[in-house]
Write a structure and sequence with these properties.
Layout: E1 11-12, E2 15-16, E3 21-24, H1 28-40, E4 48-51, H2 55-62, E5 67-69, H3 72-76, E6 81-84, H4 91-98, E7 107-110, H5 117-124, E8 129-133, E9 143-150, H6 154-165, E10 168-172, H7 178-205, H8 210-231, H9 235-241, H10 248-258, H11 261-274
Parallel strand pairs: 3-4, 3-6, 4-5, 6-7, 7-8, 9-10
Antiparallel strand pairs: 1-2, 8-9
Helix pairs in contact: 7-8, 7-11
Length: about 280
Amino acid sequence: MMTAISTRELIQSGERKTMKITITGSGNIGSALVTGLLRSGAVAPADIVLTDVNENALSAFASQGVNVTRDNREAAKSASLVVLCVKPYLVHAVIKEILPSLADDALLVSFAAGITLDQLTLSAGKRPLFRVIPNTAMAVNRSMTCVASANADAGQQQTVLDFFGLVGKAISIDESLMNAATVIASCGTAFALRYLRAAVAAGVETGFRPDVAQAMIAQTMAGAAALIAESGNHPEQEIDRVTTPKGITIKGLNEMEHAGFSSAVMKGILAAYRVFE
């Protein structure tokens, strides 16, 4: 259950104020954020401005009442919070473009992987800055979002955590862990879905239609994750609950391990992490 927080009543610097949100870029991650915010019911479409160079990419959100424009500078004028959802190589150019329009107390959030807070400061100066890694599950309010900040006070940090709490779970981490968080929590969506795809293929071979197998496995994955998230148990504790001596579960698990399942997962995650080195 998500916390019922209205972004129109989030506290900034001790005062209640309307949150005006500008999101630059309506690609996969920007669209996921807008979709999740609208789905949460806590943000009025009129309080969101979405920008993109491609007007066609904006039309679906315009039809839902979101303000859309191709002009980043104009979009930033009334923003309380600006989220940069552009490719890393465009981040500094967009910051320089919108900087003259930004209010002094506007919070600037970057989704750009690999762009550090120090690098953001070079372009944005000593304003409240946030380096944030979410995942595309923002669209269904289930993101795992990691937040690091610079030049931000405790109230501003909480505002950003509350904001991203509307589209999932948000935690503060040290910036030194941000690259690891990118691999674990953002790339991790794809890693988990690759297991799902493989399991669906096996399910079809056992006799299920693909859509039925997918629904079954997706729910099983969601249930397994909820068991751990809500109990705090180690995964092996829950595994032990469903493995019996000479049973079918342990036979399947052992066969996966003989094929290198755990090793392959660890190698994949570490290979992705080494891209940042």
